[in-house]
Amino acid sequence: MNSEPHHQRSLLFDEASNWLIRIRDNPQSTDTKAAFEAWRRTSPAHERAWTDLCRLWSVSGKAEPFYRPLASSEQKATRRPAFSLPGIGTGMAIASIATLIVWFVAPSLMIRLTSDHLTATAEIRTIPLEDGSTVQLAPGSALRIEFRDDVRQVALLRGEAFFDISKDPNRKFKVVTGSTDIEVLGTAFDVSVTEAATTVSVARGSVSTHARNAPTEVKQNILAPGDAVSIDDLSGVTTKTRVAANDVGAWRQGRLVVNNATIDSVIDIIRRYDPAWITMADLSLGDQKVTGIYDLTSPKLALGALVDPFGGKVRSLGASITVISRR
């Protein structure tokens, strides 16, 4: 296993995806060849990112020949094409691909092992709880039930869920995420978990949120219908907004309603509804803020509507890979 941090490797993988797009768009460009070779030689980590992408590209069944790197006339006769897969044996190829898959899948492996309920891409499931409450689990989500005699508690390990809680004055209902505790008596609310934040929005009743990493004086928030709060997982910084109560949990009707959210965070949600692997080739595009309503029943159209105003383009590399880049 390579030693560079997962976040750094993901960024390099996105950069490699951008080079793949540029190469396929203009395969005869001498400038592109030179710039790519310079990027690839920057560090061993850059070379690994390109090799990983080539392997994933090959596994998808869409591998194709690429042009050769810039080199002297003597080198051209013997040097391997820059954009083909490394010449490794079948056993080594399988091992390398397995390592690649583990690198990107491993962070979710423990979630799969410890959850009670999992949803697949584009799958929505309604889960009845023993107290009469119900949970609607969004696509790509994971939930663990932790009911005890004196506590009704569930852990949202990944994704998003809409909770409709039966009132029990003797036992509060608690939802826990990686950074936040949410307590209610009887209410309906939505909780969304991403790599960066936990977001809670209330449709009915009231909810108390407790940000475990926040400064002591701002750890707790009381939310009423139409209130929404986003809590940064690392800093505990809380951002409170207002939403239409009818828009809380709108994903259940195939609508994604966002307010002043980054494109990156919106794409994280759309990934749950599209079986293709979606990557951002232009990282600066992901920092742009958007407000709008997007159709989750057509993920590709939603992606296009999301990035088109900022000069973004959605490209499909076969059926299994989607790359978002600048035009």
Summary, kept brief:
With 327 residues, this protein is α+β, with helices and mostly antiparallel strands.
Show the helix and strand layout.
Layout (H helix, E strand, L loop, with lengths): L5 H20 L4 H11 L3 H16 L13 H4 L13 H25 L2 E2 L6 E4 L5 E4 L4 E4 L6 E13 L8 E4 L3 E5 L3 E6 L3 E8 L2 E5 L8 E4 L3 E6 L5 E5 L12 E8 H8 L6 E4 L8 E7 L3 H9 L4 E6 L3 E6 L1
Helix pairs in contact: 1-3, 3-5, 6-7
Describe this entry's structure for a reader:
This protein has 327 residues and is of the alpha+beta class. The chain has three domains: 107 residues, no CATH class; 134 residues, Jelly Rolls (Sandwich), CATH 2.60.120.1440; 74 residues, Phage tail protein beta-alpha-beta fold. Helices cover 28% and strands 31% of the residues. The chain is built from seven helices and 18 strands. The strands form three sheets. Strands 1, 2, 3, 4, 5, 6, 7, 8, 9, 10, 11, 12 and 13 form a 13-stranded mixed β-sheet that branches. Strand 4 and strand 5 form a beta hairpin. About 13% of the residues have low confidence.
Number of domains: 3
Which consecutive residue ranges, at least 5 long each, have pLDDT under 50?
60-94, 100-106
Give the overall shape, derived from the CA principal axes: elongated
- Give the overall pLDDT as a whole number: 81
Count the beta strands. 18
Order of helices and strands: HHHHHEEEEEEEEEEEEEEHEEHEE
Q: What do we call the CATH topology of the largest domain?
A: Jelly Rolls
CATH class of the largest domain: Mainly Beta
**Main beta-sheet strand count, sense and barrel state:** 13 strands, mixed
SS element count, helices: 7
Secondary-structure-based class equals alpha+beta
